[in-house]
């Protein structure tokens, strides 16, 4: 294993309407000690759940399956809060659903593929089970 953690900063467009979007920066994170998950981290100003505004230093973190990201690059995929699908041109759409609303983001597919490839160098596809620590996972669930 080359690295226990993979982090890639990527640019995205937050789609506000059919004719309006804004750029933002996100960080994609993958950790070998949590080999089934991907984290998508956004700056605190994109939080919808702080009634008094974002807390200084707080980030918005979405966690979903690495397999969902891989599947969504080729075909629409997702159940629940995270949906990923290819889009026209070189783009991939990520839809994040929460009680506060829905965020639709457009990423360059090549950026997501590059991140996914780096995660596979960290933990190859199909070998995630060799990196799972069942005792640690259970302890985290029981906290």
SSE diagram, text form:
Blueprint: E1 5-17, E2 20-31, E3 37-42, E4 60-65, H1 66-72, E5 82-86, E6 91-98, E7 101-108, H2 109-122, H3 134-141
- Assign the structural class, choosing from mainly alpha, mainly beta, alpha/beta, alpha+beta, or little secondary structure: alpha+beta
**Helicity range of the residues?**
10-25%
Spatial ordering of strands, largest sheet: 4-3-2-1-7-6-5
- The end-to-end distance, rounded to whole angstroms, is 29 Å
| Main sheet properties | 7 strands, antiparallel
Low-confidence blocks of residues? none
Oligomer: single chain
DSSP helical segment count: 3
Q: Roughly what fraction of the amino acids lie in strands?
A: 35-45%
Describe it.
The chain is an alpha+beta fold. It contains three helices and seven strands. The chain has helices at residues 66-72, 109-122, 134-141; strands spanning 5-17, 20-31, 37-42, 60-65, 82-86, 91-98, 101-108. Strands 4-3-2-1-7-6-5 form a seven-stranded antiparallel beta sheet. A hairpin with a 5-residue loop joins strand 2 and strand 3 (37-42). The radius of gyration is 16 Å and the shape is globular.
């Amino acid at each position: 294993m080359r690295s226990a953690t993979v982090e890639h900063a990527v640019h995205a467009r937050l789609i506000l309407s059919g004719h309006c979007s804004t750029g933002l920066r996100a960080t994609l994170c993958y950790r070998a000690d949590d080999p089934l998950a991907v984290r998508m981290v956004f700056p605190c100003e994109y939080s919808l759940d702080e009634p008094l505004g974002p807390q200084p230093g707080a980030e918005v973190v979405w966690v979903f399956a690495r397999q969902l990201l891989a599947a969504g690059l080729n075909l629409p995929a997702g159940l629940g809060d995270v949906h990923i699908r290819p889009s026209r041109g070189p783009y991939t759409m990520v839809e994040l659903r929460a009680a506060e609303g829905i965020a639709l983001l457009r990423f360059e597919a090549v950026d997501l593929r590059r991140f996914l490839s780096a995660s596979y160098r960290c933990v190859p596809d199909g070998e995630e089970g060799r990196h799972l620590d069942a005792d640690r996972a259970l302890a985290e669930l029981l906290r």
